[in-house]
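Lab notebook: predicted structure, single chain.

Context: the supervisor wants predicted structures on file for every construct in the current expression panel, including those that have not yet been purified. This is the next one on the list. No modifications to the sequence; it matches the entry in the shared construct table.
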Amino acid sequence: AAAQQKIDRMSGHGELLDGLKKGHASFAKDLAQLGAEHSTWAERVAYLEKVLGDSAEKHSREIEAIKAAHNKLATESRNHLQNHSGVAEKVENISRVQGSMQERVLYIEKVENIS
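Prediction complete. Output recorded below exactly as produced.
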């Protein structure tokens, strides 16, 4: 009778072990599924980081190109302004010379009585 009670108690442990095995198998399955989803998420994050990094690098290159173009334009503008002021001075000098030439011709005509 005592031996039978031990056997009955052990068979209860067998059922408990079977339940634990089934729970472990279910847990292992869920863990594998989460691992697969995790790698999918990791791949997605890596892709996004790559795209954003490439985009940031592209924008950085474009900004540098715009800065270089701006600096070139600013330099050309300064040079143009300097040349323009030089041309304005030349035009003013020519106007003065032309005015003095007209004055000379009038003086000569006046002195020679040419009219």
